[in-house]
Design goal:
The structure holds two protein chains of two kinds.
Chain A: E1 3-11, E2 17-26, E3 31-36, H1 42-49, E4 57-62, E5 65-66, H2 72-77, E6 79-82, H3 94-98, H4 100-104, H5 109-122, H6 139-151, E7 157-161, H7 169-186, E8 189-194, H8 197-203, E9 206-211, E10 215-220, H9 222-227, H10 232-238, E11 248-252, E12 255-259, E13 265-268
Parallel strand pairs in A: 3-8, 3-9, 6-7, 7-8
Antiparallel strand pairs in A: 1-2, 1-4, 4-5, 9-10, 11-12, 12-13
Helix pairs in contact in A: 5-6
Chain B: H1 2-12, H2 23-55, H3 59-71, H4 74-85, H5 90-114, H6 117-125, H7 130-160, H8 164-167, H9 173-181, H10 185-213
Helix pairs in contact in B: 1-10, 2-5, 2-7, 3-5, 4-5, 5-7, 6-7, 7-10, 9-10
The chains are: A alpha/beta, B mainly alpha.
Chain lengths: 270, 222
C-alpha cells in the first residue's frame, strides 16, 4: 500500500536524462520528501504520480495499482496537488479556486462553496477572504489557499511541489508548522518536493536525497541520514560539517546548554 | 471647409434618409457586411488560433500563411474574386473575410499563449480535461487579447467594407463611388465621414468590451 516507484526512468526526446532507475516506496499516511538541487529530477518524479509526466521506463503504483492503467483526469482529481507559487486561477474568487475539483466532479457549486469556506478555516485563513481574488492575497495566504484546494476533494494522496519555496522564511516556518499539524490530523500520503534539506527533515518521514540525473544519493529517515550520511555528497548536502549541525552541550550552573559548532547557544537540554 | 459644410448638409438632408438608397439603409448594409465578414472569419480563425495557442503546434506554418494573406491587397483580391464569381456581395464578403482572418488568428493564439503558464499547469494537474483547461482557464485569461484581435479586425473591415460598393450595391461605399462618378464631392465626403464615424463608434464599443473582459478588471472587493 502507499506509493511505490518501481525502477522508473525519464529520458526526454532531446536526450536529456531527468531520472534513471529510481525505486522507492512510501507507506500510506506517511510523507516522502524528495530533496535535491535543481536538475535532480525531483519534480519530474513527483509529477509521475499524477501522470503529469509519463515515465519512459518503469512503473508508479498507488495502493498497488499502476497509475498508467488509470484514466488521467480521474487520477488527477483523486490526488491533491499543491504547485509551486500557488498556481491559483487569477480570474476566480478564492472560494471558487478551492471548490475547483469538487465542482469538476459534480458537486453543486453551493455545496462546494460551503465546504470551501470550512477548508479556508482549516488552513488558517479567515473565510471572509473567500470573496477575494488571488492577486489580493499575500504570497503566504495564496499558498494556504492552494493547500485548501488540494484538500477539497479529500484525496488520500497529496503532491506538493516546493509549496513554500516562494514565501519569506518566517511565513515559511509558519506554513510548515501548519502542515505538520494538519498531517497529524489528516494522515495523508504525501510526496513533497523541496530543495531545502531542513524542510525535508522537518516534514518528511522518509527522505530521498537526489543528485543530478535523478540518481539516489541516500534514502532514509532524517535520523538515519544525519547519523550515517552515505558519502561526501550527502554529508555536504545536509551540512554535517556546518556549525549549526555539530551541537554539543556545556554545563552552565548545573544545566546543560546546547551550543553549535561556533559556540553559539541554541537551547537547553531537558 | 466649405466642402465639409456641404457634406454635413448632405448628411442632414432628410431626402437622403429612408428608402432603398437612404443613409440609414446603407448604414445597416454596411454593418451587416462588416459583421458577416468578421463573423465568418472568426468562426474559422478563432478555433484555429486557440488550437495553435493551446498545443503550441503548427504555429510557424499558420503564422507565415496568415502573414502572406495579410500582404495581399484587398482591392486586388476583390477584383480577382469579382471576375471569378461575378457581381454581387459575395466577392467583397470573401475579400473582407480574408482581411479579417490574420488579426483574428493572431489575437486568438496570442491570447491563449498569454495565459499564466503556472495557472494552466495547475489547472491540468488538479484534474481539468484539456477542453476544460481551454474553456475555463486559457480563454478567460486570454479574453482581452482575443477581443483585441476582434477589435482590430472589425476596424479594418468596417473601413474597407466601402469596397463592397465597388461591385455591388451595398454599404456606405456607394456614396463614394457614385459621388466620384458624378463629381458630387459633397456626397463623397459625406460617405467618407459616415464610414469614419461608424468605425470610431464600433471601436469605442469594442474597447469597452475588451476592458470588461480583462480577467481581474472591476473585481476589487468593496
Amino acid at each position: 500500500m502507499g506509493i511505490e516507484f518501481r525502477d522508473v526512468g525519464k529520458t526526454y526526446p532531446d536526450g536529456t536524462v531527468a531520472v534513471t532507475g529510481f525505486s522507492c516506496s512510501i507507506p500510506s499516511h506517511r510523507t516522502l520528501a524528495l530533496v535535491g538541487t535543481s536538475g535532480s529530477g525531483k519534480t519530474t518524479l513527483m509529477r509521475m504520480v499524477n501522470r503529469m509526466v509519463e515515465p519512459t521506463t518503469g512503473t508508479v503504483l498507488i495502493d498497488d495499482r499502476d497509475v498508467h492503467e488509470l484514466e488521467k483526469v480521474a487520477l488527477r482529481r483523486s490526488i491533491g496537488y499543491v504547485p509551486q507559487a500557488g498556481g491559483l486561477l487569477p480570474h476566480r474568487r478564492v472560494v471558487d479556486n478551492v471548490a475547483t475539483v469538487p465542482v469538476l466532479t459534480g458537486t453543486t457549486r453551493r455545496a462546494a462553496r460551503t465546504a470551501a469556506l470550512q477548508l479556508l478555516e482549516l488552513v488558517g485563513l479567515d473565510p471572509a477572504l473567500g470573496k477575494r481574488y488571488p492577486a489580493q492575497l499575500s504570497g503566504g495566504q495564496q499558498q494556504r489557499v492552494a493547500v485548501a484546494r488540494a484538500l477539497a476533494a479529500d484525496p488520500n494522496v497529496l503532491l506538493m511541489d516546493e509549496p513554500f519555496g516562494a514565501v519569506d522564511p518566517i511565513v515559511r516556518r509558519d506554513l510548515q508548522d501548519q502542515l505538520v499539524q494538519l498531517q497529524a490530523e489528516l494522515g495523508k500520503t504525501i510526496v513533497l518536493v523541496t530543495h531545502d534539506i531542513d524542510e525535508a527533515f522537518k516534514l518528511g518521514d522518509q527522505v530521498v536525497i537526489l543528485r543530478t540525473g535523478g540518481i539516489v544519493a541516500q534514502t532514509g529517515t532524517p535520523q538515519e541520514i544525519l547519523a550515517a550520511p552515505a558519502d561526501d555528497f550527502v554529508r555536504d548536502f545536509v551540512g554535517i560539517g556546518r556549525a549549526e549541525r555539530s551541537l554539543q552541550t556545556v554545563d552552565v550552573d548545573g544545566r546543560n546548554i546546547v551550543v553549535d559548532g561556533s559556540g553559539r547557544p541554541v537551547g537547553v537540554l531537558t | 471647409m466649405n466642402l465639409f459644410g456641404e457634406a454635413l448638409r448632405w448628411i442632414g438632408d432628410g431626402s437622403h434618409w429612408g428608402g432603398p438608397g437612404g443613409i440609414d439603409t446603407r448604414i445597416v448594409q454596411h454593418l451587416w457586411v462588416t459583421f458577416a465578414a468578421v463573423g465568418i472569419a472568426a468562426v474559422l480563425a478563432i478555433p484555429l488560433g486557440v488550437l495553435i495557442g493551446h498545443t503550441g503546434r503548427g504555429r510557424l506554418v499558420v503564422v507565415a500563411l496568415a502573414g502572406a494573406v495579410r500582404a495581399v491587397p484587398t482591392l486586388g483580391l476583390l477584383t480577382l474574386l469579382g471576375l471569378a464569381i461575378g457581381i454581387g456581395v459575395e466577392a467583397p464578403l470573401l475579400a473582407l473575410v480574408a482581411l479579417a482572418f490574420p488579426s483574428l488568428l493572431a489575437g486568438a493564439y496570442a491570447g491563449i499563449e498569454a495565459a499564466d503558464p503556472g495557472a494552466v499547469d495547475a489547472a491540468r494537474a488538479v484534474g481539468m480535461s484539456e477542453w476544460q483547461v481551454v474553456t475555463r482557464v486559457e480563454v478567460p485569461l486570454g479574453a482581452s487579447v482575443l477581443i483585441g484581435g476582434i477589435r482590430a479586425a472589425t476596424l479594418q473591415v468596417v473601413a474597407t467594407a466601402t469596397l463592397a460598393a465597388y461591385i455591388s450595391d451595398t454599404g456606405l461605399g456607394r456614396y463614394l463611388f457614385s459621388g466620384l462618378k458624378s463629381r458630387d464631392y459633397a456626397q463623397m465626403l459625406a460617405g467618407a465621414l459616415l464610414v469614419a464615424a461608424l468605425a470610431l463608434l464600433l471601436d469605442l464599443l469594442m474597447a469597452a468590451l475588451q476592458r470588461a473582459s480583462s480577467p481581474t478588471q472591476g473585481k476589487v472587493p468593496s
